[in-house]
Amino acid sequence: MSQSSRPQSSRGEFDIRQVGGRIGAEILGVDLSAPLDPAVVNEINAALVAHKALFFRDQSLDDAAQLRFASLFGELTTAHPTVPSAEGQPHVLAVDGDGVRSNRWHTDVTFLRTPPRVTTLRALVVPPHGGNTLIANSATAYRDLPQPLRELADRLWAVHTNDHDYAEPRTERAAEHRRQFVSRRYRTAHPVVRVHPESGERGLFIGGFAQRLVGFDADDSRDLLRLLQGYVTRPENVVRWSWAPGDLVAFDNRSTQHYAPDDYGALPRLLHRVTVAGDVPVGVDGRRSRVVEGDAAEHYTPASAA
């Protein structure tokens, strides 16, 4: 396990300890409830770009502290384009396992032209077993592609939408969540291969909201997306985080997918999500994502990000 140490202003040193072989690092010795020196913030952001997902154990944070930490990465979005926020917290989305479970691989809010840059998740209630979060590295997935498939992927575009075939809701609460989720319909065309604006890495930008490839029929789209998605979710590209109350996880939404397995039965699970506004994805040829249906969702993400 690789490890490096960095100064944390007057609070001693902190460690960046790699968790997975290709993705994930745990940050030790940083108290996120305290103000962070700008040099520390820069180190954390660099670690996020390099490791894609960062894990912070035993943080005593409330919503205000989570918002303060997330804002270190940039301007915040509101909670969600269509789903209501946590009560009294317009920037916080309650990820509640009580009847509403996103049991599929996805990148957050890719049905908009400007998906979030960073997602932060904070554990409030976790089950005694199960309820982990899996995060996948889409950049190493791209590098794993055979050269001919990589060259094809470089030229592909996919339409992402929030209105697609979900599993049948199991409860009335889940059915209501579904109605809220699609209360505004969005469709956006993104490059299948996105160039990361900070690292320059190429990564597969697909996931559960990517429903059809531009220029292909439904069957061929499904087959090609399934083929590419299989590289993202290979075990060597995935890290699994076992939550404890107080944990905070931050991941780079531009180069990851994540998945919360529905494996904890009727047990309670509650996380709070705060996301940072992102930019418009850019493909290998320099073209930028475009809206197919819907609007710029300025009620959700700052117009300046476009």
From TrEMBL:
Keywords: Dioxygenase, Iron, Metal-binding, Oxidoreductase. SUPFAM superfamilies: Clavaminate synthase-like (SSF51197). One of its GO terms (molecular function) is metal ion binding. One of its GO terms (cellular component) is cytoplasm. Transmembrane segments: none annotated. Its cofactor is Fe(2+). Residues 16-275 form the TauD/TfdA-like domain. Belongs to the TfdA dioxygenase family. This is Taurine dioxygenase. It comes from Streptomyces zhaozhouensis. The lineage of its organism: Bacteria, Bacillati, Actinomycetota, Actinomycetes, Kitasatosporales.
